[in-house]
């Protein structure tokens, strides 16, 4: 399950989150009908809670966070907004939650989904400049499998410098996928020119592959770069990458040889207006 929206971190000191999250809801309801919104609370610490409000369909303008949630193990409670205090008291009587999703309608009804699934969260947000060294470290690790296809470390992703990554950061968008302990386990980047988003360095830590995280990262970078055309490339030997991109709607439009061993296949996707 994917939850996308605008994220805030609130203090839980003296239970002030109930007031501040309420103000966040009021702010969002000035922009959208309340029945179109839902809110996600997660990552409770002794002092804070992270909270995201998004649309039940599509993405709210300014959405800056996507949280990857468990698909199973959810409990549901329905009731009246006036009874939220007793509803929460009942939900929390068995201890802390992992995730809580709440929605409301104009008639005073509420719906609460919650889980104590022990799986730690993963979220996708923009990288900061302070993240770039860790992103490059992940890149050196993630592209070892690509290098193995050619029997050499002499491939462009393994030769990129931190200065080059910093330049890409200044001229485009770099997203990171972060786990609950703050580790970066995935990343993708893009820059936009003349109506095309050029996507590159889509990578997932080897320990987290095979879970659909690469596809999620690709979808996220497309959402950040709302253009009419997307372009990316990979080597002709990277059959798994080609299948991933084709499944996401990309089509091959060119091949270019770097040398006798390395040939890049270029793929494009056009947005549906």
Please describe what this structure looks like.
- With 273 residues, the protein is α+β, with helices and mostly antiparallel strands.
- The protein has helices at residues 17-29, 84-92, 132-142, 144-150, 162-171, 213-224, 239-247, and strands at residues 2-11, 37-42, 48-55, 65-68, 75-80, 99-104, 109-115, 122-126, 173-179, 184-193, 196-204, 229-235, 251-257, 263-270.
- Strands 5-7-6-2-3-1-4-8-9-10-11-12-14-13 form a 14-stranded mixed sheet, with helices on both faces.
- Strand 10 and strand 11 form a beta hairpin.
- It has 2 domains: 2-115, Regulatory factor, effector binding domain (Multidrug-efflux Transporter 1 Regulator Bmrr, Chain A, Alpha-Beta Barrel); 122-228, 3-Layer(aba) Sandwich (Aminopeptidase), CATH 3.40.630.
- The protein has 7 helices and 14 strands.
- The model has no long low-confidence stretch (mean pLDDT 93).
- It is elongated and about 70 Å long.
Q: Which short descriptors sum up this protein?
A:
Aminopeptidase, 273 residues, 7 helices, 14 strands, single chain, Multidrug-efflux Transporter 1 Regulator Bmrr, Chain A, 14-stranded mixed beta sheet, elongated, 2 domains, alpha+beta
Strand neighbour order, sheet with most strands = 5-7-6-2-3-1-4-8-9-10-11-12-14-13
Major sheet attributes: 14 strands, mixed
Q: Based on the coordinates given, report the CATH architecture of the largest domain.
A: Alpha-Beta Barrel
The name of the CATH superfamily of the largest domain reads Regulatory factor, effector binding domain
Q: Would you list the SSEs in sequence order as H and E?
A: EHEEEEHEEEHHHEEEHEHEE
Helix content: 25-40%
Question: What is the distance, rounded to the nearest whole angstrom, between the alpha carbons of the first and last residues?
Answer: 26 Å
Poorly predicted regions: none
CATH class of the largest domain equals Alpha Beta
Bulk shape:
elongated
- The CATH topology assignment of the largest domain is Multidrug-efflux Transporter 1 Regulator Bmrr, Chain A
Total domain count: 2
Give me the secondary-structure category.
Answer: alpha+beta
């Amino acid at each position: 399950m994917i939850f996308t929206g605008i994220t805030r971190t609130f203090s839980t000191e003296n239970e002030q989150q109930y007031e501040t999250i309420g103000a966040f809801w009021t702010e969002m309801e000035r922009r959208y009908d309340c029945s179109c919104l839902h809110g996600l609370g997660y990552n409770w610490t002794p002092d804070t809670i992270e909270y995201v409000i998004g649309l039940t369909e599509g993405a709210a303008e300014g959405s800056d966070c996507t949280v990857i949630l468990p698909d199973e193990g959810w409990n549901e409670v329905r009731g009246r907004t006036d009874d939220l205090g007793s509803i929460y008291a009942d939900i929390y009587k068995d201890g802390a939650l992992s995730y809580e999703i709440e929605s409301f309608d104009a008639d005073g009804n509420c719906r609460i989904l919650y889980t104590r699934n022990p799986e730690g969260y993963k979220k996708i947000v923009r990288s900061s400049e302070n993240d770039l060294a860790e992103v490059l470290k992940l890149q050196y690790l993630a592209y070892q499998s690509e290098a193995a296809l050619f029997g050499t470390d002499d491939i462009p992703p393994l030769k990129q410098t931190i200065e080059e990554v910093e330049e890409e950061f200044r001229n485009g968008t770099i997203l990171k996928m972060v786990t609950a302990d703050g580790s970066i386990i995935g990343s993708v980047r893009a820059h936009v020119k003349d109506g095309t988003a050029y996507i590159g360095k889509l990578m997932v830590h080897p320990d987290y592959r095979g879970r659909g995280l690469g596809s999620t990262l690709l979808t996220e970078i497309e959402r950040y770069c709302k253009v009419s055309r997307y372009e990316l490339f990979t080597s002709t030997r990277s059959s798994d990458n080609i299948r991933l991109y084709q499944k996401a709607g990309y089509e091959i439009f060119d091949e270019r040889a770097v040398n006798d061993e390395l040939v890049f296949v270029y793929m494009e996707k056009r947005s549906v207006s």
